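Letters spell out the chain; the tokens describe the backbone. To illustrate:

===
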Amino acid sequence: MTERVDFYVLKSAAARQRLAFACRLTEKAYLKDLSVVIVNDTLADAQALDDLLWTFNERSFIPHKVCVDEHSMDPATKVHLAALPVALESAPSLSLHAKAVHAAILSETLELADSLLHQAVKDIEATLFERVLDRLRAQLPELVDRILREHAAAQEDPQDHG
């Protein structure tokens, strides 16, 4: 099975809105029978999310567990809430500092966006250039014909242009 990590950047900085979003997303993942680990900055944040998961939707039930240390992760439970130090201890491959990970993701995202934007500009320029050439090809015969007629008319009546 392929493991997947998703990051979300929310418009609102309000804690209540972030927690409500986390609850809805957790419910969606749980209903798809996915395993979820929500890493919080502190154990207090994990406990606040714990309280909200029990009450955010009266028609929903999301069994979950707050992990206070690396030994409290239960493989039978699909949703775990942990504070950052606990999450790092229980997953040695994630032994990176959250700010460093965030900075790396942000940096790579900005580089990718910059690269994609530059390519989009090149694509737009190429498309516009092609349109200009198509218009030129379409209008050139008429332009040449008009100029030839004007010059032919001038040749026939030289006193009008002299």
Q: What stands out?
A: DSSP finds four helices and three strands in the chain. The two ends are 87 Å apart (CA to CA). The chain has two domains: 15-95, 113-161. The first strand starts at residue 36 and ends at 40.
